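Handoff note, outgoing to incoming analyst
You'll be picking up this chain. Sequence as last confirmed:
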Amino acid sequence: KLAKQLPPLRGMAAVNGTMPCFAKACSQHLVTRWADAFFRGAGQVVFANNPLSGVLIVAALFAAVADGASPAVAVCGVLGLLGATAAAVLLRMDRNALQSGLFGYNGCLAGLGAATFLVGAADWSAGVLVISALLGALTTVLNLSLGNFLGPICQDIGGFGGKAILFQLVEIGI
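Most recent structure output, in case you need it:
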């Protein structure tokens, strides 16, 4: 509504919110649908179902390298995000949830945590790269398992499905 009232904001309507027109355009091709889900997953780290938010999050991970952060952390975060999104596709998880990035964010956080806690975020390690992708995939498997277990129980407390604790469970396991 605000964009209609303030002429300078009218152009922002296309990139504001969940960008449904963009999602519809991306749904026509496998590669664009995958990229949309990937970047929405990165955006969900800050609770934004918006692929541009995800692009900014991924860019910020790599931009931190210029400020002295290890590129291994950014790469592991991306690998965790890829692992979680790929697992969601392979497990044929809910397509709407997948396209909203609801599987990728836990994988991204698990990958970032793996790089930080396993190698101190400073060194490259092939094992940690593989573990990051596998931990990302594990968050999706846990999502499926925990969702099936907690779904009926948590309907009584407002619909909480246990999605927010998956990253924490994986990190505690590290």
